[in-house]
Structures are given as structure tokens and as C-alpha cells.
Amino acid sequence: MALLPRRFLCFVLAHHFITATACQEADYGWMIRHYCLKQFQLSMEGIGQPLWCDWDETVGTYGELTNCTALIAERLDCYWPNRLVDEFFVAVHKQYFRNCSPSGRALHDPPNSVLCPFIILPILVTLLMTALVVWRSKRSEGIV
To answer: What is the pTM of this model?
Structure first.
């Protein structure tokens, strides 16, 4: 019977210790939105929307955002990265980088001087091979 109160006491102490030192997710979420995100938004507005997909332009601002979330997590004794950070960065990517290619470069068609040979050359080769087959099949009638 003495074992049951001891387990209960351990459970109560462990619960008290965990609640006293656990990360306050609500505070952490509020702080990263109001401190880190606000600064990131100002920096991104300064860069300008046409350059958001240019990684060379945004890498510094993005690094500051990452460091800010890590520093606040450290101050509040939260693990980093965590679920809130993941959700936060997914939201940031949806807002700022949804139209960017994975390589960070804007996709566009190549110039016509490059594109035309890649279109015309296969067409000419197909026509040439068709003419060669027809010519060869007419010529082979006399060969045994």
C-alpha cells in the first residue's frame, strides 16, 4: 500500500515540474507573430514583391526570421523547431513564396533563337526520314 502513495506523489511532483517549466505555446505563437513576422513583413515590403522569388535578395531576411523564432523559443524554454514553428513557416511560405519555383528562379520561356531550332530540327528530320524511306522502297523493287 505504501507504493501507491509514493507513485501518486511522484506523479503530482512530475506534473508540477512539467507545468512549471513547459513551453507556453500561446505566448510563443503570439511573440513570433508580433515580433518576428512584423519585422519580416517590413523587410519583404522593402525588397518589393517582384523580387520575393529571388533567393539572393530574400536569404538575409529569411535567415533573420529563422533566428528570431529560435531566439524567442530559447527565451521561453521551448524546443526549436516545434509544431508552431512548422505551421508558422508554412503560413509564411504560402503568403510570400507560393508562386516561386523550387530553384528560386522565375521560370520563363527561352529566347526564340534557342527555342526555334528545338522545334524545327525534329520536324525536318522526320520529313527527311519519311522521304528517304519512300525513295528507298521505290528503288528496291529492282534489287533482288
So the answer is: 0.56
